[in-house]
Amino acid sequence: QVQLVESGGGVVQAGDSLRLSCAASGRTFTGSPMAWFRQAPGKERNVVARINWSGDNKYYADSVKGRFTISRDNAKSTVYLQMNSLKPEDTAVYYCAVDTSARRYWGQGTQVTVSS
């Protein structure tokens, strides 16, 4: 059974940093890109950052460029999201995802709340 387990969310103040982790288990994801999405209350789920298998191709949403960094450790089947200079508008549930040729797998989400 495939599982993606996120951790690292919490309540912080504007300007603070958080590091999210997402550990995948249940199968191998060799070659699969991984990504972080977020969903704020009443809004759609949107991609925040995406990374390919080798880690040399990364995409960031304009709203997080220069503040967030995505990385991965394939030996641990884990993807990270380092979030710096957090803003209240970053408040959302953050989800990790893995894309295979057959489907996208989702984690259960972790709440990030940034107070002003």
Can you walk through the features of this model?
0% of the residues lie in helices and 53% in strands. The protein has strands at 3-7, 10-13, 18-25, 34-39, 46-51, 58-60, 68-73, 78-83, 92-99, 104-106, 110-115. Strands 2, 4, 5, 6, 9, 10 and 11 form a seven-stranded mixed beta sheet that branches. A four-stranded antiparallel beta sheet has the order 1-3-8-7, with no helix packed on it. The chain starts with a strand and ends with a strand.
- What is the global morphology? globular
Distance between the termini: 40 Å
Helix coverage percent: under 10%
Percentage of β-strand residues:
over 45%
Would you identify the regions where 5 or more consecutive residues have pLDDT less than 50?
none
* Helix vs. strand class: mainly beta
Order of helices and strands: EEEEEEEEEEE
Number of E-state strands: 11
Number of helices: 0
Average pLDDT metric: 96
| Rg computed from alpha carbons, rounded to a whole number of angstroms | 13 Å
Largest sheet: 7 strands, mixed
Topology of this structure?
Blueprint: E1 3-7, E2 10-13, E3 18-25, E4 34-39, E5 46-51, E6 58-60, E7 68-73, E8 78-83, E9 92-99, E10 104-106, E11 110-115
Parallel strand pairs: 2-11
Antiparallel strand pairs: 1-3, 3-8, 4-5, 4-9, 5-6, 7-8, 9-10, 9-11
